Amino acid sequence: MGAGKRGVLTAAVTVVCAVTVLAVPGTAFAAPTPPPDPGTTASVTVVTSDVELEAVRKKLDRLYRAAAKATDEYNAAEEKARQQTAQVMRLAKKIVEGREKLADLKDRAGAAAAAQYRGGGLPPEARLVLSDDPQDFLDGAGRVRQEQHAAKGLLGEMTRTQRDLEEYAEDAREQMRKLEAGRKVKAAAQKRVERQIEAAEKLEAELEQEEKERLARLERQAAARAQATWLSSGVLDELTSKATAQGREAVAYATAQIGKPYQWGAEGPNTFDCSGLTSQAWLAAGKTIPRTSQMQWQHLKRVDVGDMRPGDLIIYWADASHVGMYVGDGVMIHAPRPGRTVTLAGAGSMPILGVVRPDPAAE
Question: For the whole model, what pTM was predicted?
């Protein structure tokens, strides 16, 4: 982003954060509802205080974070299954080719045996000794050595091919065992995701519309407080790095997805989860990166938060269960959670574990 846009956006983020934080009521607790008279049958409306809603917000946050972690496990199992399936296919191709080669070698060995039979069943050495012509003897000696060498080579190649076939078959069996184990891991992770999301949705469904609106406001206020604290550290003053060409392409792809729904396990084009968005954005920029936020944290180059540039990935929470893409001026883009859409947010609105760079070679 240009200097003008950067200044405007930074100022806007700061003002929004400040206004939102100031809007947080110092003692915004609803007055406790008096208990109904034991003798009355009139209905009583229970008012949920902001304190109670804050507890709900934190519980929802824990549930959705647990779902995000399980989603990462599901995505990792899915990625391994793709790799193992591809390996099984490669091994199957090698097995087919090996069988064809072995069949050809057996045909050649059979042809050599048939030729010996047509020569009276005598081995080449015996026919050579019975030769009366000295020149034939010398010529024959050379042919015998060639035939012996060819026969030895043929038998050796048959042995190696048979051994390769056995190794390919064992490797294929091992990959199939891993696939089956991965299928169980994937199924278990799917159940955990669905269970956590179902619990969160049930909790939200119990709220009245007005309570849902106040809950959404509390979520925005919590994010704004975290962002304001992050900005107050002066981190933006240290950010001077510019995006690379690939980084700009990745940011352009990610921002083009704004408004599309979150769906766990999704990699687009119509829905995304957090790491599905970041991995596809970098794929669109010509760079293949790991599929999950945890693998992105483990395998991509780590950089200082003060050195991050647009296109870098910000990994959140201690378990690396969430990821967003930094787009500049203290802002990131991410797919937040079920029930939300791809959106821009403050880069410091959640606890930052660290920053990773998909294209360090472009420096």
Answer: 0.63
